[in-house]
Amino acid sequence: MENKKLTQAQMDTKWTELGDFFRRKSIWMLMYCTGCCAIELPQAMTSAYDMERLGMGPMATPRQADVLLITGYLSLKTLRRLVYTYEQMSEPKYVVAFGPCVINGGIYHDSHAVLNRLDHYLPIDVYISGCMPNPESVMNGFTDLMDLIKNKTAVGWKNYRDNNEWYKKNQMDALGEVFVHDEFHE
Amino acid sequence: MSVILMSMLIGLGVALFGFTLQTTIGGINRKVVGRMQKRYGPKWYQEFLDIFKALSKRAISHGWIYDFGVIMAVGGITATAMFMPITDSLVAFAGYDNFFIFVYLLAVGMLGMAMSASGSGNPLASIGVMRALTQMLAYEVPFMVVVITIIKVSGTSSLTGIMEFQQANGWFALSLPIGFGVAFLSLLGMLGKKPFETYIAPSEIASGPMVEYGGKQLGLLFVMHEIATFIEVSLFVHLFLGGASNIIEFLAKYFIVYTVANLISNLNGRFKIDQVVVFFYKWPLALAVLQAIWVLWR
Ligand code: SF4
Predict the structure, then answer these.
(1) How many distinct structural domains can be found in chain A?
(2) What pLDDT does residue A40 have?
(3) Are residues B49 and A26, on separate chains, in Cβ contact within 8 Å?
(4) Chain A contacts of B30, Cβ < 8 Å?
(5) Contact A98, A128 (CB under 8 A)
(6) Distance from CA of B53 to the nearest CA of A (A)
(7) Could you report the per-residue pLDDT of A130-165, keeping only the tens digit for each?
(8) Sorting pLDDT into bands at 50, 70 and 90, what band is B208?
């Protein structure tokens, strides 16, 4: 009798596993098309590679989306919007980053306007390599994300919550002081 | 007492059946569209995965109006679906399946959604709600003219009565062909299918009323949307295609109507909202009135 009854922790694990099953079979993307890597998404979405057969689809707003795609280099000016967007998404949320530009700056590594390491500012779950990555590797990246969700290792959103001060400090260091005039201009 | 309880249980069963049916057929239709575009398409149960995924996520709130509106929408739509006859003998509240019940009760769900969307405070949501109401004003007028013609011809406004009349005298789709066409255009408007997709418009107003929804509220809105689609398509089947005498017939008719609407949707672009209103007030309304005059003074 005693071992039939599950503890609260075991019940939570069961619910998480059930949720993870749905979350990896149905992934809604929010495309933050900053750089040139974005041009590889249409091929992955349409007839040739057909992302929808994996249950993925584009969504219109951050609130509805599960995964944020950062396609390419990230300039200083877009970081603030990116952070707003990421923080609006409902948990659990994942981030997929495209190309070497988000890892070490890529060919823009010495530009004053481009941030070099994205994972100082946002938690990244999957990197997709290639400049630009071809549609096969894009699809491969998404199946990797599904595996990570299955193995419970796609925990970027938890890291962001736990290490929030560190991320916030890095973001502030990069942005400097922001003077907000109105909602559209800084 | 127990009769009422029994009816309620059957009614809830009908609502659940409607949800399951429409979600399945919606998923199959995504596959159909995929094949049409030379893709493999998602799994047939993809819509279920999407809905349960959305329900499994964490939700934020924008205030109690926002939360309450969602619950009111789901509740209102479920209550409407409970009155829907499935075949001419399977109806939860026999004698209460009047056409006007659906018109009034459907508004409760829609208003709940409108209230909740406005409660989110996003300007795009208000634009979406405004467009949805404007569009409703546009397609309801020709649709009502056609339905009132039907009620006049069959002498009853109960759906089962209209169904039985058609089974005796032939489908209204054949005896009132103009009205059938007009009502099909109105159905496209009701379902928010493509030429009349003005209030969703993902690339223009970021999915309109749903712009601020995420997680559980979004999942509930999807449930509401599936049941609302079930109600609208079944109304069309019962009014024009002779209803159904058994459940297989109902499933077949339902599937055909929804698939044709969906295929038309995927071949079209999107009207602007003013074009929608002008369109519905021009040809469909004129044809509907013409047919009403022709039928009544024949
Ligand atoms: S990785 Fe290459 S393709 Fe992608 S944004 Fe950078 S330069 Fe462009």
Answers:
(1) 1
(2) 86
(3) yes
(4) 52
(5) yes
(6) 5
(7) 888 888 998 999 999 999 988 888 888 888 888 888
(8) confident
